[in-house]
Specification:
Layout lengths: L1 H20 L5 H23 L1 H21 L30
Helix pairs in contact: 1-2
Amino acid sequence: MYLIAIAWLYVALMMALAEASSPQGSIFGALITFLLYGVAPLALVMYLVGTPARRQARRAAEALADAQAQAQPASDTPASGQRDGRDEPPAEPLPTVGKEP
């Protein structure tokens, strides 16, 4: 895979050098040639070819996170044994905001 990418960049570089050394060519034309015929298409192809590997890595990371979440105990009580009162209703109803009774 990387051999093809290196070969593609080599050919694009040779095209750019031919453009720069031509009597009718320019350095700007060589730079545009290298970017549009070499770097841009190669970046697109490498991104598309790497999509399955990125997807597999993301799924592996999600599976690892799920496994770690399931491995931890799911108790609501802290290690000290004291409850924090999250699951109990409030002692008195909350007042209505912005309205007088």
